Automatic annotation (TrEMBL):
It comes from the Bacteria. This is NAD(P)/FAD-dependent oxidoreductase. Residues 404-457 form the BFD-like [2Fe-2S]-binding domain. Residues 6-356 form the FAD dependent oxidoreductase domain. InterPro entries: BFD-like_2Fe2S-bd_dom, BFD-like_2Fe2S-bd_dom_sf, FAD-dep_OxRdtase, FAD/NAD-bd_sf, G3P_Oxidase/Oxidoreductase.
Length: 485
């Protein structure tokens, strides 16, 4: 089967989904082609979700431009798309005069990059802003505009809105080959070969994360060399009060070990930065210990025994530079690249999408806004966060809202069903987890996973033994499931 579109976007991470949502407002047929079986299974899944403000990138870089603008846009995007976003502010803690000089440099960077209201504060103000910050800190860069999100929730919300506006999502479709035709601007230029069928398009957008170099190579475009800069991350159980993001003074290649709250009340320690073999998502004891040690320097009373999860991912770094590459290929007309989108990729995503739109417009792509474009995505009901009156209303509408499956996160059966039935919906246990947090809590699905499997088998009309944990082949059970007929 071959389908033809005006635009094909390769990659359904936060970058590709944001671009799809941005372009969905125009009178164009668009397809998002994803190698995995769900949204945001690469770098977008394996990070701390910080919306960095934009004082760290060097002024004049693409990173600086899209980071500050992306942070600014998050308030609007969160309101329109219904994902959780908290703009808490942050501090970069300094402990000596050398650190203070570095903070002054960051403040100057931020001023040039357009980051608002940056200031250097002393110990009293540090304690006022975040009482749990280290008493040894002598100074800090206070940045009110920093915040945090769940990056996969942002990607899911953006693609749901794009699909509602007519975008096609093609999952389990790794690109195996790209044929480029030497024809005019109005003709089909690219044919993508995938196991799920071929995709033909006039314009191709490469937003494939750690696979972007392969896509560029297949299209005969820029030959990128990618580095797998692996990061280990640790998640702690929920705290009575959410921590403000606290940073150390950054290094040339990393923002260092950061301690931050999350939109759901957990504490995250993120992230190490080690060069490892491509695809390595193993967690390492040395890295985890470095995270815990670094975290205690920033928050001495942090109870690091409350770890509920450790995981790892790889930043898609272009060898020899920390810069983003966003623009039309200089080799293959009609191919648009969003490559090297490492940190601050989550913070920059809305602005990368905006920037890509402008690049395409300048390249002559006709963008006529649709009269029926709807920027609003209604977020699914979150039973745990809903007011009591809404809980009662939901249970009255469907008793499955009162059947709690995940006790840690108070997720009822009806919420899991809704996660599967949305467009695009969950097709794996981890897909359910990312959409409604069933299995995300203290027990890490120890109690609820079998029930989630049973619900998925019913909803997807398959045997429990066919239900996937995540990717193809990741079956959880073999044979009959207790209590399931």
């Amino acid at each position: 089967m071959t389908e033809t579109f005006d635009i094909a976007i390769v990659g359904a991470g936060i970058t590709g989904c944001a671009i799809a949502r941005q372009l969905a407002r125009y009178d164009l047929s668009i397809c998002v082609v994803e190698a995995a079986n769900d949204i945001s299974l690469g770098a977008s899944k394996a990070n701390g979700g910080l919306v960095h403000a934009g004082y760290d990138p060097a002024p004049g870089t693409v990173k600086a431009q899209v980071n500050a603008r992306g942070c600014e846009l998050y308030g609007t995007w969160a309101q329109e798309l219904g994902f959780l976003f908290r703009r808490t502010g942050s501090m970069v803690l300094g402990f000596n005069s050398e650190d203070r000089a570095h903070l002054e440099q960051l403040r100057c960077n931020g001023h040039v990059n357009g980051v608002p209201e940056l200031s250097i504060v002393g110990p009293d103000r540090i304690h006022e802003l975040e009482p749990r910050a280290s008493a040894d800190a002598t100074c800090a860069l206070w940045c009110p505009s920093t915040g945090f999100v769940d990056p996969f929730e942002v990607a899911i919300a953006a693609l749901e809105n794009a699909v509602a506006n007519g975008v096609t999502f093609m999952r389990s479709a790794p690109v195996e080959a790209i044929e480029v035709a030497n024809q005019g601007a109005e003709a089909v230029r690219f044919t993508l070969t995938t196991p799920a069928g071929d995709v033909r398009c006039r314009y191709l957008i490469n937003a494939a994360g750690n696979g972007a170099a392969d896509i560029s190579h297949m299209a005969g475009a820029e030959e990128f060399q990618m580095v797998w800069r692996q990061g280990n991350i640790v998640v702690l159980d929920k705290e009575p009060r959410t921590l403000m993001p606290l940073y150390p003074v950054p290094t040339p290649v990393s923002k260092g070990v950061i301690v931050t709250g999350t939109v759901h009340g957990n504490t995250v320690i993120t992230a190490t930065a080690a060069i490892r073999e491509p695809g390595d998502t193993q967690t390492y004891a040395g890295d985890v210990n470095a995270l815990l040690t670094g975290a205690r320097k920033l928050v001495p009373d942090l109870d690091t025994r409350r770890v509920v999860r450790a995981f790892a991912g790889g930043r898609p770094v272009i060898k020899g530079t920390n810069e983003f590459f966003i623009g039309q290929s200089t080799v293959v007309p009609g191919l648009f690249q969003a490559v090297g989108i490492q940190s601050p990729g989550v913070a920059s995503a809305p602005a990368i999408a905006e920037h890509m739109e402008q690049v395409m417009r300048e390249a002559g792509v006709e963008l006529r806004e649709r009269a029926d474009w709807n920027p609003i995505r209604r977020a699914p009901d979150d039973f745990d966060r809903a007011p009591l009156a809404r809980k009662e209303e939901l249970i009255e509408s469907d008793p499955a809202w009162g059947q709690i499956v995940c006790r840690c996160e108070t997720v009822p059966e009806a919420e899991i069903v809704a996660a599967i039935r949305r467009h695009p919906g969950a097709v794996s246990v981890e897909g359910v987890k990312r959409r409604c947090r069933a299995g995300m809590g203290r027990c890490q699905s120890g109690f609820c996973q079998s029930r989630v499997v049973a619900i998925m088998a019913r909803e997807l009309d398959c045997e429990p033994s066919e239900v996937l944990l995540e990717d193809a082949g990741s079956w959880l059970v073999e044979g009959p499931l207790k209590g399931v007929r």
